[in-house]
Amino acid sequence: MNITKWRTYLVTAVSRSAGRSTPEVVAAALAGGVDVVQLRDKAATDRERYETGLRLRELTAAAGVPLLVNDRIDLAAAIDADGVHLGQTDLPVSVARERLGEGAVVGVSASTVEQAREAEAAGADYLGVGAVYGTDSKDVSGDRDGIGTERIAAVADAVDLPVIGIGGVDAGNAAPVVEAGATGVAALSAITAAEDPEAATAALRAAVTE
Amino acid sequence: MNITKWRTYLVTAVSRSAGRSTPEVVAAALAGGVDVVQLRDKAATDRERYETGLRLRELTAAAGVPLLVNDRIDLAAAIDADGVHLGQTDLPVSVARERLGEGAVVGVSASTVEQAREAEAAGADYLGVGAVYGTDSKDVSGDRDGIGTERIAAVADAVDLPVIGIGGVDAGNAAPVVEAGATGVAALSAITAAEDPEAATAALRAAVTE
């Protein structure tokens, strides 16, 4: 797995999937060429996420795509995910590393240069930085007013880690995020709520690779 | 550790502690003779619960009292707790056992005889059964209308596991819970919100042992 090649990153949100299951949306995103999937599904219970996660593990493994879990180190271990993504108020990176092993991917949300430097010092493998464009979604950690692509550039300059821009990003506005220095972009609604999640993923991919 | 000797069980709830920290309340409950402590603190972030949990581990270890963690297997492992307490929608008992080892204590919430039998079959070590007397607390899992001491008796008859009655229990109404067949009682507000948590614990203990 090479994190520096992650261009498109799906964060699942069953509450926004228009009645489709998370495995359905993930299967479509995989067909559309998504590079990495994070199981989030905040509206689901732990047991539901566990059941969903086992299915996502099958789908992503078959596609050769890494699977991460939001917040929960125990859930990541239980479904044999490749790692976790931690927010600023979650368990520390050191705990994730200890429980999941040195080979696990540990991502951290950061909204500022200071948080980014702290996460790098703590041993994070990549950063989720946002909300880039502002969002009303409670599904995005950090500053929801929109930090802008200038902040993406500042963070990318300040650390040596891959930066994934998140928050309000879609095929129409993704290019400036990678031009600012992000490795790739994460999408929730832009894929999950799309009429055609496969096409939306392909469009997002095209926007950041062309 | 002998679970069948648990008479008084504290569930922490920092939101109900009148400004006192959870370690302060736990220290007082330990001085009052509490038999087991569960870190819950639903209003806290994961990082706060981790920091609190490390302190509770010191306090409970010094007192020779077991420490459990609500819901979170990763947090239990991170603070070297003795086990976890799982609700009906949490990760399965099998996952807790696999992650924490055979020696860990795994408790499960049950409101009905059917749930109790399922938890026993899944390998639970004890059951938290309630809400015994009804409660408006969202801090209590299961049926909040009050299942009554008859249900405690039915569950205690149906399974071989220790039963801890929870929900609206205080020193004034605890005796009928153990008379119905519960090993002990769990308290949230009756200890945490008390003016003197040490005296409240001692009073609860007296009510269930005399």
TrEMBL record, chains A, B:
Q: Which residues bind Mg(2+)?
A: D71, D90
Q: GO MF terms on file?
A: magnesium ion binding; thiamine-phosphate diphosphorylase activity
The residues forming the signal peptide are none
What SUPFAM superfamilies does the database record attribute to this sequence? Thiamin phosphate synthase
Enzyme Commission code(s) on record: 2.5.1.3
Can the keyword Transferase be found in this entry's annotation? yes
The annotation note on the cofactor reads: Binds 1 Mg(2+) ion per subunit.
| Family membership noted in the UniProt record | Belongs to the thiamine-phosphate synthase family.
Q: What is this protein called?
A: Thiamine-phosphate synthase
- The species this protein was found in: Halorubrum ezzemoulense DSM 17463
